[in-house]
Amino acid sequence: MKTVEQLNIKIFADGADKEGMLDMHAKPFIKGLTTNPTLMNKAGIRDYKSFALEILSEIKDKPLSFEVFSDDFIDMERQAREIASWGENVYVKIPVTNTKKETCYALVEKLASQKVKLNVTALMTLSQVRDVVAVLSPDVPSYVSVFAGRIADTGRDPLPLMTASVELLKASPAAELIWASPRELLNIFQADAIGCHIITVTNDILKKLSQVGYDLDEFSLDTVKMFYSDARAAGYML
To answer: Which of 49, 181, 207, 219 has the most crowded Cβ, counting Cβ within 10 A?
Structure first.
């Protein structure tokens, strides 16, 4: 079994808590960071730009993705240009469609042609991956973010789609595939095995990295001790 250090895949930390983001940024195995409006809202952030600029004032050496939040493509373009101006390490997250199910492909092609680094997000089908790759610039760094975890939530195995997506991205050499929304630590190793470039991981999953390769007999004993300790703490009697 590979250690974390032996993995080829790049691990990006996904979150919106400043302390947590800075903590993850300091770890050598974290190669980048991402966030989104949902995570930021849950974290209680109300001033989007101020938060972003505050984070960017301390994180300058690793890629960091911030998302547009307009539902109108003209305004989305304006937001994308402003976000891109915040730093050389900034990638602009563009959703694959707006809420009206209108695709972002024309906007992605326009921004990519102007050398804006993009993170096209919320993809869940192979046709979406194919259409996004077709409009990316082969020379401009970009991310294609497929929500494998959400695909798995529907009862579908995301591995075949992710494997096929790795092949599709070969047509755009500067683009990298992101395995987004993982549900368990195993997903990091699955993504690495198929040659996926990046996986975005939340802090709750990252905290389990210390368990990688842990002896299963010892893990079993730890679990039994946990049940016993918790039953005693609760004062259960029969």
So the answer is: 181
Q: What distances in angstroms separate CA 92 from CA 53, 66, 97, 166, 233, one per listed residue?
A: 14, 5, 15, 21, 49
pLDDT digits (tens, 9 = 90+) for 176-207: 999 999 999 999 999 999 999 999 999 899 99
Domain architecture of the chain: domains with CATH: 4-212 (3.20.20.70)
Amino acid occupying residue 142: S
Q: Collect all residues with Cβ–Cβ distance below 8 Å to 158 and sequence separation of at least 6.
A: 146, 148, 149, 151, 152, 179
Is residue 27 within 8 Å of 11, Cβ to Cβ? no
Q: Is 6 left (phi over 0), alpha (psi -120 to 50) or beta?
A: alpha
pLDDT band of residue 4 (cuts 50, 70, 90) is: confident
Contact between 188 and 2 under an 8 Å Cβ cutoff? The reply is no
Nearest to 161 by CA among 171, 152, 170: 152
- The answer to whether the CB of 69 falls within 8 A of the CB of 94 is no
**Contact between 97 and 121 (Cβ < 8 Å):** no
Provide the token pair at 228. Answer: 């016993």
What is d(CA 119, CA 96) in angstroms, rounded to the nearest whole number? Answer: 10
Structure tokens, 32: 């980048």
